[in-house]
Amino acid sequence: MTEPESRLNERPSDAPRLAAIVPDALAGRRFDQALAELFPDYSRSRLTAWVKAGAVRLDGEVVAPRHILRGGESVELDVRMEREIGAQAEEIPLDIRYEDAEVIVVNKPPGLVVHPGAGNPAGTLQNALLHHDPKLAEIPRGGIVHRLDKDTSGLMVVARTLRAHTSLVEQLSERDVHRQYAAIVYGAMVAGGRVDAPIGRHAHDRLKQAVREDGRDAVTHYRVRERFRAMTLVECRLETGRTHQIRVHMAHVRHPLVGDAQYGGLLKLPKGATPELASALRGFRRQALHAEKLEFAHPKTGKPVAVEAERPADMEALLVALRADSRENG
């Protein structure tokens, strides 16, 4: 008995088994290529791994991923769910705004790191999600398909099944997920616009991103919501999802985010600021950025899912101080 066949016989009793017949239209195609069309709920890389592990059989036989099909063969797939991540579950409160068997949409508070890593081995959103649903350990990256910076608040969607993970990754890749943010930036902006500027790793600081010609394409749309004397509340919509994209793009157009020491430099107090505004700005120790709206197609039904989250208390308090300052100095 070969090693793949041995592992196949060790299939867990509760593992789902899927079956299909190779249509004539796929004759001449490689086995791994055809599997991606026969079982679109799973990524091609995962299907290929299952083929190599002996979890997929063609007419009852284990074959190589490169095997060429003739059409009409029967395919059996034993879905293998194994632990994908090493993070441990922790009882950390979650603000869940939408949940069903396929996805979770969570409102992340500022200050919460998304993934465990250097300097943050625990106490992250991923640890909290694993406590909420231990089966997320069987999904790549614990079901997290996109991220927010530690000090950015707002909505994130998490996949609870492989089907949902595959669908959401594809939607993000195809730019079909609507992500809308609220941001407070320096400067009294007069109009909205579009920033189309590629982003890549900063040439001298590996912790930063920068606009650079050889970077990956990045597009941000923004519009003015409310103007103050020296700052503006803007709405930002992401067309792409690069690391630190809004922060980099708004700094690029000379309107960096309030509180963003990494891209905006030192605190800038407006001339003649009221004591209340000065205090609010000095106490605001993060970038003023909140992911307020998320829309995507449901991975199972295809129907639109739209979730919104109100701005957090610290941003609201800053806006109250900005409005009062504008009235007093108007």
Quickly describe the structure.
The chain has 330 residues and is α+β, with helices and mostly antiparallel strands.
Description:
This protein has 330 residues and is of the alpha+beta class. The protein has helices spanning 3-9, 31-38, 44-52, 125-132, 162-173, 245-252, 261-264, 275-283, 313-328, and strands at residues 17-21, 56-58, 74-78, 96-99, 103-108, 153-159, 178-186, 193-196, 199-201, 209-211, 219-227, 231-238, 289-297, 304-308. Strands 4, 5, 6, 7, 8, 11, 12, 13 and 14 form a nine-stranded mixed sheet that branches. A three-stranded antiparallel sheet has the order 1-3-2. A two-stranded antiparallel ribbon has the order 9-10. Helix 2 (31-38) crosses helix 3 and helix 8 (275-283) runs antiparallel to helix 9 (313-328). The model is unreliable at 1-14 (pLDDT under 50).
In percent, how helical is the residue content? Answer: 10-25%
| Biggest sheet descriptor | 9 strands, mixed
Binned strand content: 15-25%
Oligomer: single chain
Q: What is the string of SSEs from the N terminus onward?
A: HEHHEEEEHEHEEEEEEHHHEEH
Number of strands: 14
Mean pLDDT, to the nearest integer, reads: 90
Structural class: alpha+beta
Number of helices: 9
What is the terminal separation in angstroms? 84 Å
Low-confidence stretches: 1-14
Overall shape: it is elongated
The value of Rg in angstroms is: 24 Å
